[in-house]
User: What shape does this take?
Amino acid sequence: MALLIYHFAHTYMYPTRRAIACLPDHLISQIAAGEVVERPASVIKELLENALDAGADYIQIKLEAGGTRRILVGDNGHGIPANELALALTRHATSKITSLSELEAVASLGFRGEALASIAAVARVTLTSRTADTEHAHCIAPNQAIAPAAGEVGTQIDVQDLYYNTPARRKFLKTEQTELGHCLEVVRRLALARPDVTFNLIHQGKPVAHWPAQNTNSALEACAGRSAAILGEEFSHACLAIDEQVGPLCLYGHIGLPTAARGRADAQYFFVNGRFVRDKLLSHAARSAYQDVLHGDRFPAYVLHLNLPPELVDVNVHPAKTEVRFRDARAIHQLLFHAVQKCLAQGAGSQGDSLGDRFQPSVTYAPSSVDSANKPSPNWITARQQDLHIAQPTAAYLAMFEAQQNISSSSTLVEAIPRDLSDESDRNNVMNEHIVDVAQLAQQPLGHALAQLHQIYVLAQNAQGLVLVDMHAAHERILYERLKQALGADKLSTQSLLIPVSVAADELEMATASEHQATLMALGFDIAEISPTTLAVRAIPALLAHADIAALAHDVLRDLRQWGDSHMLEQSQHQLLSTLACHSAVRAGRTLTVPEMNSLLRQMETTQRANQCNHGRPTWIQLSVEHLDRLFLRGQ
Assistant: This one.
């Protein structure tokens, strides 16, 4: 055994020294292909990006054997002149940049000049193209000279036998169906990025996907149409629109309702200047914005586009171009976080029901900060009324259901109405108190309370039909939001420690504590350096007096280093407030009077995020009259 280990080490770990020499061009291309061409989906991505950069508005993709046998991509773009066809297959040859200044402000999807050369190094590539000023197309095939060919204006690239000359790489490919799934996902991403382009995907001669161009002048409407076509009607019926602009930064798209969240993060699409990216900064910002409304270990769905000047983002980070680096990462993080948070922070009734209206084909739009001043309030109340409502003391909400103590907990709504009224006028007066004013319903999104079901749910009638409210979940959200408002109004009170806590820190934590002293003080911390490897925590937020101080300090410094701000402290405080609200909210089994139920509905309409409780569960749902008619087969 020892001899075998010795032989392995000296053969593979300590090989005989070789002379330094330049690698052959074909080997360089094959090595580069390992980074660019990971699987058939990688080939499709590069070819589609080239087609989009060429100005194509119609792209057709034909696959065989999941793309391992053949990939044929045709577009109606500008085309490539005949004298440039051979150069297009050469390493580091591109028409998209010519200088460093253009690289720093690149706006095209491709720019490295490696894609076609890398693909040609591991597959048989035939390139056919025609420009608008030529009578016919020209074609270049493996080991052949450029020759005339038939073809429309645009480019067609035929990639056959992927990895035919590197069989070891071919063994790493998965089954045909798996590779087809990856190819479809790539096409799906680019189709979401460019709703103005028609995409047609065919596999083994059978159509797989066809997404026609969205002919509209509004980017948001085009995004909505393409999102509905790709992610399905379920997403389009349970999403909110975002359209925000702050200086040169423009963010638009759609985010899914929290109650439509998924078990996997497979419906999260973020595009920077039309480029699909995977970025931890962006994912963290979106996840943080949803933290108060997600149920369990769920993942929100969203399709978001961020447009900014090219010089503010570096796309030259990785050959696959799915990673970017922002010049001002904190500004991007804050824009996304606050935009999503503001979109979710609406009163009940302004978003449709908390599960999404399954019976209305339109997307519910949330007004942007620019338009909100010129549009009616989505909560059917004025902004001034909201301000006055929020300014009320927290104690008023804690006692919201304590106004009528003369009603016992065992009484019911029916028992509150006398049964033996002999005077018909008295009976009418009592019953008139529960008659719903139709005109008033139009002004109240959650309508008028009718009754209580099993002392758990509130039944109400609004202009659309029937509303069902989980009274505990709804009251819990109301109390939670008021507690947060009270905490924000009082700022953060700091508690000094009688004995400072010493925390061992590495070089990065030491530097972070020194650099972000002002931010730490604003968060309620007093953290100072007492040695090159030790920090002393002298004060912490009073609300977290019983927390693990050392772990708290490490977490806050980590957040400051990664995101430029710490949401960990806010999350810890909100968890405490959520627990307090949960224990203070009205419990199931409590009998409510009609005025109490109506009070709950009015509070929900003016409370942020009232569509979900603190744990992400829905607080109410809407059953439209049309839905009820279907259940009872009316008109059929």
In short: The chain has three domains: 26-209, 219-374, 379-416+435-636. The longest helix spans residues 471-489. The two ends are 82 Å apart (CA to CA).
